[in-house]
Amino acid sequence: MAYFDHAATTPMLPEAIEAMTRALSTTGNASSLHTSGRRARRLVEEAREDIADALGARPSEVIFTSGGTESDNLAVKGVYWSRRTSRRRRVVATSVEHHAVLDAVQWLVEHEGAEVTWLEPDGLGRIRPEALRDALDDDVALVTAMWANNEVGTINPVRELAALAAERAVPFHTDAVQAVGAVPVDFTDSGASALTLTGHKLGGPYGVGVLLLGRDVATTPVLHGGGQEREVRSGTLDVPSIVALAAAVRHAVSHQAETAAELAALRDELVASVRRVVPDVGVNGDPVHRLPGNAHLTFPGCEGDSLLMLLDAKGIECSTGSACTAGVAQPSHVLLAMGVDPVLARGSLRFSLGHTSTAADVRELAEVIGPVVERARTAGIAGLKRLAGKATAEV
Amino acid sequence: MRVLAAMSGGVDSAVAAARAVAAGHEVTGVHLALSAKPGTLRTGARGCCTIEDARDARRAADVLGIPFYVWDFAERFTEEVVDEFVAEYAAGRTPNPCLRCNEKIKFEALLDKAIALGFDAVATGHYARLATVDGVLELRRSADDGKDQSYVLASLTHEQLAHAMFPLGDSTKAQVRVEAAERGLQVADKPDSHDICFIPDGDTQAFLTRRLGEQPGVLVDDETGAVLGRHVGVHEFTVGQRKGLGIDAPAPDGRPRYVLSLEPVTGTVRVGAAEKLQVTEITARRPVTRITFDGPVECVAQVRAHGGLAPAVAEVVDGELLVRLREPLSGVAPGQAVAVYREDAAAGDLVLASATISSTR
Predict the structure, then answer these.
(1) Which ipTM did the prediction report?
(2) Cα separation of B343 and A33, whole Å?
(3) Which residues contact residue A354 at a Cβ distance below 8 angstroms, ignoring those fewer than 6 apart?
(4) Where in the sequence numbering do the catalytic residues of B fall?
(5) The pTM is what?
């Protein structure tokens, strides 16, 4: 079996499992005032300091959340609500964001009187700073642009984008879910006002994440309650998950350079070995500014769901990008925004590598991809055959 | 065999898949996404297009331990079934979208893709019996008379049926529900779907009016030619319909009036007495025959999905199926299929042919 879906979720690191297991057998609400509570609080604060240290942030800027979706929603809605005035209600967002940002922005438009300017990427999936410069004005409440794209793996010029927003004193949020641990991420140096990360993409547990949030960034809470986390995010702190998240962040960030080098080499070998048997395979995203573990490939004449099923049957697990709630593989909104033909977009697969990936995984894929693509092509053509025939008959 | 089980999220297709697994086949479950905008949980599980149905199908596949995928056939379904359904009504005919879906989606689009991907057969939860006897593929009525679906499968070609599996053919619905519960399938007591899946509120006329707009016309007394009322489109009517005609004045003889025929070009709906609905001869186009018709064949004809049975003599004349009924039937609507069977109480009536009704007398 070869697992090529680390961008969806990656196995927990042994350090994180160990830390979590240990914490699971202790009791204590980090808000309690007695000894057990103080012990739990200490674990949380140590975790907070570790995460801040690893990511170039101050401990007070670390807000624990339930994960990427919550962090994105808190940043987008919370900052918008805080900054909204009658003349300042525009959100500038890229059109290739994860749905946690896209749909939060869209919701503000539909329910909270927001206006939106979508920044379109270039053909490589990158947001040009000029596009942001043109979009900025005094009526902008928030800019949000992802650090690295979860589908095609393209890395944005976050520092430049953040600097442009800063010139106008507009808060800048970046969804760095795919970036932390994969590329160097330094919150202070990036100039971002808010940054999303999540545990299960970097070797930590599911259901826990962080919003790094600058001290001076006014943010209206989404969750109200006990006033935890600077009164921005109420809710009893999940001590075992937080401890494990910190262990994972520490490990992922301290090993980032070597892991990235290994994964990039493995990824390049993956692309090369697929291309040897499928010469017309297309490679999407930015060849230079890209995540080390991401290979996003287009197989002309194939349907993604056929490829996925055939590969799954051979023990190769990858992704078609995104699926709707019912589970239908959708042509990626990212590829469409990049100007990829919808039919080609439907024949695209994401292979994402991570800390457990091996050269043997890549060889396993290389051995089966030829016949799989050939078969999927036959099926792709079968799907269109009769309609094509019908159209001809009617002409 | 490598079998692709089409799983709607209902109890029948779940048990059909389970039986294919039990029979030793290598089974993969597929749910067909047929709606471009799948319904939400709130719209309920009335059709085959809701998120809840996809989830139920996935859960059933989990329980069976088989791989499961959702495949998008929304575009094909819209073109080949929904648009066709609307066009048929606009032309004054009464289509059967389930039959069309079997012909064009389940046993064409899906089957073609399945074969190309290396599968040998497509299994569905239809109630019909399929067996090869002395080298001949026979399609027969289900063991459950009330659930029999051979009528909506009778127009499949030999090639299509050669790659079909109906594992429920020998069972009754009650048996299937019991078996589902025994197998731990949560859908065991899920209600049956009745309505047309792409019209979840069940209001076909409102759906057609939305699609076709208003095309006003008149209701005319078939005998006197008198205009009895006005309507917003012939698509509001089906031959044999009695209710909802919108005629205020009762008939002079006090007897109920029925829709006798639809003339889409002039927008005329002819109404009249029940006996004028009686049909004794049916001409049907595009016959799919399962035996060689050398001459007239004694049979039982079925003219709609439920009921509408009469002894008859069927014959292929000039490429059309001519069915002479020995007992008249009423409400025989052009656009519906006529299926003809050879009676067989023991093994199930055998499908001889099916064709689309073009005219009646």
Answers:
(1) 0.88
(2) 84
(3) A6, A10, A11, A263, A293
(4) 101, 197
(5) 0.90
